[in-house]
Amino acid sequence: MIPVLTLDGPSGVGKGTVASIVAQKLNWHQLDSGAIYRAFALAAMDCGIGIDNLDGLLELASKLDLEFKSNSDHAPLSVYLDKVDVTTELRTEKTATVASKYAQLAPLRKVLLVKQRQFQKPPGLVADGRDMGTVVFPDAPFKVFLTADPEERARRRLKQLQVGGNAGNISHTLDGVRKRDERDKNRAHSPLKPAKDALIIDTTNLTIDEVISKVMAIIEV
Ligand code: C5P
Fold first, then answer.
1. Smallest CA separation from ligand 1 atom 16, residue
2. 3-state SS assignment for residue 135
3. Distance in Å, CA 73 to ligand 1 centroid
């Protein structure tokens, strides 16, 4: 059984940063499942396939040509869609908002679920998202759910947007984070929620190193 560490939580909580540092420490593979939903949203927008055209969306999802490239410096993974680097576009709040709308569609999630499970390769996988511990890898031996106050998450998200070369302001970012969380928590399929066996870590007042130590502690016992 190839071990999986699932890292779930709301927008801007820092899952991606924690995931890439922990994956490098363990020398495990990494799955940024949000990037799959975001890349799908970009592809659907490019092709002009709306949310009401389910057949078109499913066909697009099954053909999605997606590639992740890791960077050595804990930076987020670079994402290539149809061999084109879409990393900057992918990280905008607009792409995230559209992604969260498509992410409500159960048949689409089913197609993307298969792609996500393909990342489980030796020696192990660190997978971050919303439903990693509940739906995609329910048997994972290590599960963490990260939380933080919305204001702190908006600050973190804004910093991340700026590092990624995207603009934004705090009230707009907070509004986007709140709306997306509501949509992710209240959807009928695979909603954002902690798995019953997940360790819940409130990161509001923790440094990144403190979060990493707590996550590593459950793997190293
Ligand atoms: O994690 P990230 O902010 O990149 O995710 C973008 C959106 O993709 C989320 O708001 C959510 O709607 C969707 N998503 C999801 N399930 C996942 C990961 C992301 O529904 N496992």
1. 130
2. helix
3. 23
Q: What class has domain 4-216?
A: alpha beta
Q: Would you say the C-alpha torsion 128, 132, 133, 136 has a positive or negative sign?
A: negative
Rounded Cα distance, 38 and 102, in Å: 9
For ligand 1, what atom is nearest to the CA of residue 97? Answer: 10
**Domain residue extents for the chain:** 4-216
Flag whether the pTM goes above 0.90. yes
- DSSP letter at 26 equals H
* pLDDT (tens digit per residue) in 112-137: 999 999 999 999 999 999 999 999 99
Higher pLDDT residue, 166 or 30? 30
Distances (CA, A) of 190 to 35, 156, 177, 198: 17, 25, 18, 16
Mean pLDDT computed over every residue of the chain = 93
Three state DSSP letters for 171-208: HHHHHHHHHHHHHHHHCCCCCCCCCCCCEEEECCCCCH
Per-residue model confidence as pLDDT tens digits over 59-85: 999 999 999 887 766 667 789 999 999
Give the pLDDT of residue 74: 61
Task: Give me ligand 1 centre to Cα 100, in Å.
Answer: 6
**C-alpha Rg value of the chain to the nearest Å:** 16
